[in-house]
Structures are given as structure tokens and as C-alpha cells.
Write a structure and sequence with these properties.
InterPro entries: DNA_bind_recomb_sf (IPR038109), DNA_bind_recombinase_dom (IPR011109), Resolv_N (IPR006119), Resolvase-like_N_sf (IPR036162), SSR_resolvase (IPR050639), Zn_ribbon_recom_dom (IPR025827). Pfam families: Recombinase (PF07508), Resolvase (PF00239), Zn_ribbon_recom (PF13408). It comes from Alicyclobacillus sacchari. It contains 16 helices and 20 strands. By secondary structure, it is an alpha/beta fold. It has four domains: 7-153, Resolvase, N-terminal catalytic domain (Rossmann fold, 3-Layer(aba) Sandwich), CATH 3.40.50.1390; 179-248 and 285-311, Hect, E3 ligase catalytic domain fold, CATH 3.90.1750; 318-391 and 456-511, no CATH class; 400-451. The strands form seven sheets. Strands 1, 2, 3, 4, 5 and 6 form a six-stranded mixed β-sheet that branches. Helix 13 (395-419) runs antiparallel to helix 14. The two termini are 34 Å apart.
């Protein structure tokens, strides 16, 4: 590990380089290699002029490639850079220009202050900016604001140029599967080998195959994508919905829009989102040779819509989604069969077929109940819940509120049944009395008040009951999942034969 040393004793000054490239910078030829070479040459000349030793280790070159719409302080390379700065791994940070450092003035100033607080000297070569000079923050803010304004103007010019290019029937970006790009005319031409695969995909879908089944069949046949990868369910779905295959160019279906939101620290952040704006869409029919006719494309679109309406979403809470992993390491996702039985299956198998993973489906209720039982046993054994007391408004209060809502809903259903003559008065009084008793007991458990400044609750009294039996109503299942994800980091399946076995990794150190 390289340790930063003070330049006062004649030791080498350790330099880091930050480089970033986006679509706009690539247009102007401001590549990553160019930025890094530019900074290295500056360090060499600075060392020669000052008769000092400036070194730039390869491991201290931080690169962000094509990341847009993300706050600077959340980019992977920036996070590593700040972590290394806090540990004193370098003395100087070099960047080609403030426009490369950050496009947002607030982000740039936050970054500068963070580095200065770590004792790092920040140098932007194009602007001749040096944080060791007087009024450095004032000068930096002006340069950063100018860079942000120029970035926004460049973005508008690039978008307008791309829209005009699309209107003339020329293609923006990489060619889609089944086509190649003529570099001279900038128009799409049919790639005969890949075109056969695309036509096969459309034909298979109309023949009744789903996107996953098509991907699995192609992978089993050894047919790969244009870039040599396995076919996925998502890629098949995108092909079936892309009007490029009936000869059309539809550019601008998604447009960048700036919005402001409150970040985790409470500070308002600026963020770029993709939105749909009909006014920004450029539609050019017959821009290039079609791979499928319009009737086939329309028939596929109709079937896709039918399946989308049939599938829908039930808003269910699945306990192990995002927590459980298959034997191959893939995430487990849910799948419902024709009899409305819910299963967990491997996400890699769902995307790429059984070529990627051969694990069988697992009934959701069986797996969830088994995991809950195992967690309950481990919690009782390893966590001193009976000795722990919490104060305030814990999840137990939320659980009481949920149960109260359920009882009120049952009363409303009971009264509706009595009102329509489905229940006699005697039956209504009997069932209503039971509900009132349960509601009174619930009010007693909550102290008969809506809110307490402080309440003491033994963790065991409310955690363990939630780990006993799988809850199936939405609100109770939500509480159960919150408890589970607080305790559990990962559930990893390790075997299916003869019985399902799993390894559970806990967060006990964090509880």
C-alpha cells in the first residue's frame, strides 16, 4: 500500500488522477486515455520544473466511464477516491479540467471541500486551478458554474443533432441485432446471418413460445447474440417491441429530464431521469429494409399486450425475494403456475433458460415456512431476546395498528352480511361480540392510548410470534418481511435432493 508522505522532507509527492468520459466528451475526442496521458505529462513537467519527484501509481488512476444522471459523490470511482484520500494514499489529485471533475456545481464544490479536508491538493490543469492558492474556492465555483452551463448547452446541441440525423433516416448509436451500420451513409443494412435469427424469434413468438422459452431454445441450439452472449428473456422482449424491425426509426422514445429531490442527508440533489415525451419523438417510416412485415409486427404487439394484461401484478409480499439465492448463486424470483401456486425459481434460469441453471422450482410456502422455522430456532438459541428491552415506538406498535385495521375490516364485512340478510341478528351479535373482545384485548395491549412517549417491550414477546407461521395478508406479511430482512443477510440454497437444504447468513452483529 502506498502511504502519503509530506513533501517537506524531500520525499516523492504521490499523485492521483481522476478521469471521466460521457457521450458528449466522446464527441469532442476527450477520451479517457487522453485525459490520463494529459495529467501524467503535467505531473512529469511539474516535477521537472520544481525539481521534485511526482509519481502517479497506476492503482491511483480513478476512472468513471459513461456514467450520466448520477450524483458525482455516488459514482464508484469517486467513492474509492474519497476512501483512499481519507486513508492518506495520495497528496495531489490531478484532473484535466473541472468539466471532467464534475458537471454539477454543488457536486463539484462538495467534492473539493471533502478532498481539502483530507489534506489533498486539487489541481485542474486546463483552468490552471490549484486549491493551495488564495480564494481557491471562489475561483473553483466560477469555473464549475461555467462548466455546468457549457455541459447543458452541449447536451442540447447533441440531442438536436441526433434528432436531425434520425429525421434523415440515419441511425444513432450501435446497430440493433440483425443489422449492420454502413459507415458512409450512416444507414442500417441487413446482416443476413443475424436476420435469420430475428425472423425466427418473431415466428416463434407468434407460434406460442414465450420470451423465456425462445431464449432457452436459442441458447440450447448454440446460437449467440451479435456480441457473443447468451440470449435473455429481456433481450427477446426488447426485440419484439422494437419498431426498427419493420423498417422504422423511432428516436427519442425516452428523453432526459432534470428533477430535484431531497437526498439521504436532507440536501436537495439534482438528478437526471428518463421520461416519455411525445413532443420529442422522431418517427421515420421506411428508413431502412425491414426484417418483418408490419402485419407480423402488429400481431406480435397485440399478443404482447394480451399477455401483459393477463399477467398483471397482485401486489403480494414475497418474504425471500432479494434475500434468497439459488445453488448457482443467482437470485430467486417468484413464478405462479396455472393453478395459482407460487414457486421460487432461479432468476438466471428465468432469463437464459436451463442452459444457465438446471435447479428445479421450489414451492414458495414450503420454502418460506422452512426458513421461518429455522430462523426462529437460531434466534432463540443465539440472540438474548428475552433479556433485551426496547423503548419508543417499535415495530410492535405497527403490528398492533395492523391487527386493529384487520378487526375493523372484519366488522365492516360482518355488518354488510347482516344488512343483506346473510346473517341473523343472533349470529351477528355472537360474531360481533367476539370481534369486540379481541379489539378490547388489543387496546389493552397498546395501553389504550394512540401514542406513548415511551413504551418498554421485550423483543421476544413480539419478534418470535412473527416467526412462527407465514402471514398471507398484505400488511402482516410486510411486517414479517421487515423483521426477516433485519435479521437475515442471505439465504443460500445448497441442495435439492433428497430435501431442500439452505445456509442462512445473519446480521446478528447489526441487531
Amino acid at each position: 500500500m502506498i502511504q502519503r508522505r509530506s513533501p517537506d522532507n524531500g520525499a516523492a509527492r504521490v499523485c492521483a488522477i481522476y478521469a471521466r468520459v460521457s457521450d458528449e466528451s466522446q464527441v469532442h475526442g476527450d477520451s479517457l486515455d487522453h485525459q490520463i496521458a494529459y495529467a501524467r505529462e503535467y505531473a512529469r513537467r511539474r516535477a521537472s520544473d520544481a525539481e521534485e519527484v511526482w509519481v502517479v501509481p497506476d492503482e491511483l488512476v480513478y476512472v468513471d466511464e459513461g456514467i450520466t444522471g448520477l450524483s458525482m459523490v455516488k459514482r464508484p470511482a469517486v467513492l474509492r477516491l474519497l476512501e483512499d484520500a481519507r486513508h492518506g494514499r495520495f497528496d495531489v489529485l490531478l484532473c484535466k479540467g473541472i468539466s471532467r471533475f464534475a458537471r454539477d456545481t454543488v457536486d463539484a464544490l462538495t467534492m473539493l471541500r471533502s478532498l481539502i479536508a483530507c489534506g489533498v491538493q486539487v489541481i485542474s490543469i486546463e483552468e490552471n486551478f490549484d486549491s493551495h492558492r488564495d480564494r481557491a474556492e471562489f475561483v473553483f465555483t466560477i469555473h464549475s458554474a461555467l462548466a455546468q452551463a457549457e455541459s447543458e448547452k452541449t447536451s442540447v446541441r447533441v440531442r438536436l443533432g441526433a434528432m436531425q440525423k434520425a429525421r434523415s433516416g440515419r441511425w444513432n448509436g450501435r446497430p440493433p441485432d440483425g443489422y449492420r451500420l454502413n459507415r458512409e451513409t450512416q444507414r442500417l443494412e441487413i446482416d443476413d446471418e443475424q436476420a435469420l435469427v430475428i425472423r425466427q424469434i418473431f415466428a416463434m413468438y407468434l407460434a406460442g413460445f414465450g420470451c423465456r422459452a425462445i431464449a432457452e431454445r436459442l441458447n440450447q441450439q448454440g446460437i449467440v447474440t451479435a456480441n457473443g452472449k447468451l440470449w435473455s428473456q429481456r433481450r427477446i422482449a426488447r426485440i419484439l417491441q422494437n419498431p426498427v424491425y419493420c423498417g422504422e426509426i423511432v428516436y427519442g422514445r425516452r428523453t432526459k429530464r432534470m428533477r430535484f429531490r431531497q437526498g439521504e442527508s436532507g440536501i436537495v440533489e439534482r438528478r437526471t431521469d428518463w421520461v416519455h415525451d411525445d413532443a420529442e419523438i422522431v418517427h421515420v417510416p421506411e428508413a431502412h429494409p425491414a426484417l418483418v412485415d408490419r402485419d407480423m409486427f402488429a400481431a406480435v404487439a397485440h399478443r404482447l399486450q394480451e399477455r401483459r394484461l393477463q399477467r398483471g401484478r397482485d401486489g403480494s409480499v414475497h418474504l425471500l425475494v432479494g434475500v434468497a439465492r439459488c445453488t448457482c448463486g443467482g437470485r430467486l424470483v417468484t413464478k405462479e403456475n396455472g393453478h395459482h401456486t407460487l414457486y421460487y425459481r432461479c432468476a438466471r434460469q428465468a432469463e437464459f433458460g436451463r442452459v444457465a441453471c438446471t435447479a428445479p422450482y421450489v414451492r414458495a410456502d414450503d420454502l418460506e415456512q422452512a426458513v421461518l422455522q429455522r430462523i426462529r430456532e437460531d434466534v432463540v438459541t443465539h440472540l438474548p431476546l428475552r433479556d433485551r428491552v426496547v423503548t419508543g415506538r417499535p415495530l410492535r406498535r405497527q403490528a398492533i395498528d395492523v391487527e386493529r385495521s384487520r378487526l375493523v375490516a372484519q366488522f365492516e364485512k360482518l355488518f354488510a352480511a347482516y344488512a343483506c340478510g346473510a346473517l341473523s341478528l343472533a349470529q351477528f351479535d355472537h360474531l360481533n361480540g367476539q370481534l369486540r373482545e379481541r379489539l378490547a384485548a388489543l387496546e389493552g395491549a397498546s395501553g389504550g392510548q394512540e401514542d406513548h412517549g415511551h413504551e418498554e417491550v421485550r423483543l421476544a414477546d413480539w419478534i418470535l410470534p412473527w416467526l412462527a407461521v407465514r402471514s398471507f395478508d398484505l400488511e402482516s406479511a410486510s411486517i414479517q418481511r421487515r423483521i426477516l430482512t433485519t435479521l437475515v443477510q442471505e439465504v443460500r440454497l445448497i441442495s435439492f435432493n433428497p430435501d431442500i437444504s439452505a445456509v442462512i447468513r445473519y446480521r446478528f452483529a447489526e441487531v
